[in-house]
Amino acid sequence: MDPFLTLLHSVSSSLSDKELSSLKFLCRGQFGKGKLESVRSGGELFTILLEKQLITNDSVAFLKGLLETIKREDLVLQLKQFVEEGEVSAPDDQPDVHEKRLQKVAIEVICENVGRDWKMLMRKLEISEVKMDRIVAANPFNLHEQLTQSLREWQKWKGKDAKVTDLIKALRECNMNLVADKVEQKLLPLNTGTG
User: Fold this and answer.
1) How many Cα atoms occupy the beta-carbon half-sphere of 2 within 13 Å?
2) CA–CA distance, 28 with 112 (Å, rounded to integer)
3) Contact criterion met (CB below 8 Å) for 184 and 168
4) Which tens digits make up the pLDDT trace of 89-98?
5) How far apart are CA 192 and CA 195, in angstroms?
């Protein structure tokens, strides 16, 4: 799946009807009124913007401007993270495909099983308090999202040096052995090539 389209889908599903209305109004200078009147969802609006190439995988300034205007700082942050995480970045600083798959599974298990103590885990992984505070501010009532974003931050920071073994080691150092065991169990079929 295209990470950029996944991001647009996520942004689209976060928009209220009022916000969608505002976005359509802000786009009036780009299209005729008729084209915008038929738009019923953020997804439809983004499709038009993609067709006109006002937003592309490596150019999100127009979308960022729209989201800033409707004061959706959380979505602007999501967009910035997408750019910083370098879905647009150099592939040579990324883990190999197998390691990425392992990380994806490990992160899912960690997010499902680590609760309120997630900051302790992130400190073990050397994520700064400032970054964690920023993530909490962007997702104030969503513990799962706070942990997911923090782990993405760790992946981005470590690049190709991000290893699942480091996640497991950090879990054990935080006495989250049950979670570490669950991660290892989930990864076993992937590591033996039967997954």
Assistant:
1) 7
2) 42
3) yes
4) 444 556 677 8
5) 8
Cβ contacts of 175 within 8 Å, gap of 6 or more: none
Read off the amino acid at residue 159: G
Residues 42/13, Cβ–Cβ less than 8 Å = yes
Task: Identify whether residues 100 and 180 lie together within a single domain.
Answer: yes
pLDDT in tens, 1-22: 677 888 888 888 888 999 999 9
Residues 113-141: what's their mean pLDDT?
Answer: 90
Domains in the chain, number: 2
How far does CA 113 lie from the centroid of its chain? 19
User: Domain of 7?
Assistant: 3-84
The predicted model scores a pTM of 0.53
* 97 and 179 inside one domain: yes
Residues 6+ away with beta carbon under 8 Å from 2: 57
Cβ–Cβ under 8 Å, residues 55 and 63: yes
Return d(Cα 171, Cα 161) in angstroms, integer: 17
